[in-house]
Amino acid sequence: MYENQTQTNWDYTMKKLSIASVLALLVGSTPFALGAHHESTEHGKGSTFKYVELNQIGDPAKVLEVKEGVSRPLKNGEVRVKVLAAPIHPSNVLQIAGKYLTLPVLPSTPGSEGVGQVIETSPEVANLTEGQLVLLAGVGTWREEIVAPAARLIPLPDLGKPSMAVIEQLSMSTINPLSALLMLTSYVDLKEGDWIVQSASNSAVGGYLIQLAKQRGIKTINVVRREGLAEDLMSKGADVVLINGPDLVKEIANATNNAPVVLAIDAVGGETFTRLSESLGEGGTLVSYGLLSGKSPIFNPGIAIGKDIRIRGFWLTKWFQTAAMPEQQAAFGQIIPLIANGSLKANVDSRFTVAEIKKAVTRAAQRGRNGKVLIVPNAN
Fold it and tell me: Which SS3 state, helix, strand or coil, does residue 235 take?
C-alpha cells in the first residue's frame, strides 16, 4: 500500500513539472543563491549559515573555503530550504581539481545534488509549503541553507515522517541510481537470465546497478580491485565477484560457464576496459562512463571486428540535455519509489558538517572506503 501510494504521488508530482524547469535544474545552468550580505528576513532575523566556496582550481582539501552568510529576504517566487544531506561524488572532486569534462564557474559552491526541507516560501509560491521535502538537483548544495526559485526544486511525494536514513538515501537519488538505471536499460534489450559485467562494482553506481539487475533477473559479474568486498556485494544481489587481474577474461568465462556476456559497463579505463571488452560475447556492448584509473582505454579493433562489439559512452548531463520530458519522468518514476521504500540504497561511509568540508573531501578521495561521504549540516 505504501509503495503504491508513493508511486502515485510521484507520478502526479512529475507531471506538474515543466520541461524547462527540470532541464535547468538538473543540468545546473544557474547556481542557487547564497543569500549572503543582505538584510535578514522576518523568518531569519539575522540568522547565519555556513557554505563552501571554491575560488580556485586545485586540491579540494586545500582550495575549498568555509564561509558564513546572512539569510536574505526572499524575492517573488523564491523559497528558503534547509539542506538536510548532500553527497560528495568523484565528479565533484575531479571538477574542483580541474580534471573533469567541465570546469566550475569561479567563485561557486560545489555540490551537485541533495535533499532539503522548505522552511519559508514567498507569498507567490503555490506548489511548495513549509516542511515539504525537495530534491536539490543542480549545483551548489554543500551549504546549510539554499534560496532558490520554487520552479527549480523537485518536490518529493508525501513520505510521512521519513527517517534520517531515508533522507540520506534520497539525497543521492538524482545522479548515481539514475545513471545505473539508464546504462542498464538504454543500450541493450536485456532479458531475464542474461549476463552483464561491470568494473568499479563497489562504487555507488555499481551497487545500484547490482540491485536493479537483481530485481530484473539479470545476472551480474562484479569486478573489484581488492579483497574483502564480496560479502557486501553479494548482500546487494551480486551473482559473481572477481578481483581484477591478468586472468580476468578467463575467470569471467568460467563464472558464466561460457555463456555470453551481453553488456559490459566500465568506469575504470586502461587495462580494465580492455579485459571487459574481450569478455563480451558476439554482438556485445561496452558502455564507458568513467576513467578512475586515469589511464586511457586500450581497445583491440580485432575484437570489435571479429565479435561485432559496440562501444558506447554515457554522461548523465548529456542525457538530461537530450531526453524528452516523458522519458525523464519515467526514469525518475522508477527510481524515487524504490529509494523511498528501501528497495534501492547505497552504503554511507561517513558524515561531515559543512564546517568539516576539508576532512570530508579528504575522506572522499581515500581508497578503501565502502560507501558515500555525505555533507550533513546537523551531523554532530
Answer: helix
Which residue in 65, 36, 31 sits closest to 48, CA to CA?
36
- Say how far apart CA 292 and CA 296 lie, in whole Å: 10
Active site residue 187: no
Assess whether pLDDT exceeds 50 at residue 27. no
| 197: β partners | 221, 264
Q: Which residues contact residue 2 at a Cβ distance below 8 angstroms, ignoring those fewer than 6 apart?
A: 341
Q: Going by CATH, does the domain composed of 2-174+320-335+348-375 fall within 3.90.180.10? A: yes
Give span(s): CATH 3.40.50.720, the chain.
187-313
Residues sharing a CB contact under 8 Å with residue 226, sequence separation 6 or more, in sequence order: 243, 368
Rounded-to-integer distance, Cα 35 and Cα 49, Å: 9
Give Cα separations from 350 to 5, 93, 228, 369, 372 (angstroms). Answer: 32, 16, 19, 9, 7
Nearest to 254 by CA among 184, 203, 195, 299: 195
Q: Which residue has the cell 578512475?
A: 292
**Cα dihedral angle (95, 100, 105, 111), rounded to 10 degrees?**
-40
Q: Which three cell numbers stand for residue 341?
A: 521504500
Q: Residues spanned by CATH 3.90.180.10 within the chain?
A: 2-174+320-335+348-375
Higher pLDDT, 25 or 294: 294
Closest Cα partner for 201 from 15, 71, 346, 302?
Answer: 346
Distance of CA 132 to the CA centre of its chain: 22
Provide the pairing of β-strand 219-224 with 240-243: parallel
Classify domain 187-313 at the CATH topology level. Answer: Rossmann fold (3.40.50)
| Cα 261 to Cα 307: distance, rounded to the nearest angstrom | 12
Is residue 103 within 8 A of residue 92, CB to CB? The reply is no
Asked, as a colleague might, if the bond just before 90 is cis with ω within 30 of 0, I would say no
For 16-66, where are the alpha helices, taking DSSP H only?
19-27, 60-63
Which of 100, 187, 208, 289 is flagged as catalytic? 100
Question: Which run of H or of E encompasses 313?
Answer: strand 310-313
What's the whole-number mean pLDDT along residues 81-109? 93
Q: At which residue does the C-alpha cell 518529493 appear?
A: 156
The model's pLDDT over 293-307, given as tens digits with 9 standing for 90+, comes to: 989 988 888 888 999
pTM: 0.84
